[in-house]
Amino acid sequence: MASALSVSDLSLNIGGAKILDGITLSVDHNETLGIIGPNGAGKTSLFNLLSGLLPASRGTIHYGGREITNSTPYQRGRAGIARTFQTSSVFNNLTLLENVRIAAQAALGHSMNITKNAYKFSKAVDLAKESLQQLGLGKEMHHIAGSLSHGDKRRLEIAIILASQADLILLDEPMAGLSVENVPALVEIIRSLATVHKKTVLIVEHHMEVILGLADRIAVLNYGELIICDTPEKVIANPTVQAAYLGASL
Ligand SMILES: Nc1ncnc2c1ncn2[C@@H]1O[C@H](COP(=O)(O)OP(=O)(O)OP(=O)(O)O)[C@@H](O)[C@H]1O
Ligand SMILES: [Mg+2]
Question: From the CA of 39, how far away is ligand 1's center (Å)?
């Protein structure tokens, strides 16, 4: 079977600076790939290229066997790629249900016009409710998103992704800003994306214990280059990784 995602020689230059340089890696269906590296290593930039927010300066991206290097973010979303951002990005003035229903409507392939298509609208509402319940947010569905705690907002973002029916999920530091006691529950939710929902997951995270507990393989970026992409055991044992990253942070 073809990889879910493969990138070849992927590079990003901004104003003469090499932000990413010659990244080549592939991710299997239903795999969880951890991405680590020091601040400024290029992790978010890689997600920006994968989701189409920034154009690649060089190289190719294939998803589901098709080249998407020049596809728009919208086209990639339609093809099944979804991402969360380093800072939470939900609509604070809308209810949880409205936040998730918008994603469900898009996934069901119809417009935001409620009056025109009541039946499809109700299907989107059902899908949204199901996603919220799976994330343990069913009771709060009519609350406005702005009233949620930081941890619950992260859950809401994952409910949105589930409702969008994406297959490839890019999570950029999902634990950022969470209090320590909320981390294990979110780890289990993220684990369930692969184990229960059979998604392919790329996760950028600074918490090493989170990455080690979730990832099938780990990619290490340093100054825009991919140092290694291998099993957690091999990554930890790699001398270059230890020198460049682990040595400084563990
Ligand atoms: N739009 C941009 N214009 C100029 N430089 C940028 C831009 N986006 C990113 N960079 C630079 O690219 C490098 C990589 O940034 P990036 O945000 O991808 O790192 P990161 O690995 O996600 O870091 P962090 O762990 O802090 O989130 C940094 O030096 C950053 O300053
Ligand atoms: Mg980042």
Answer: 8
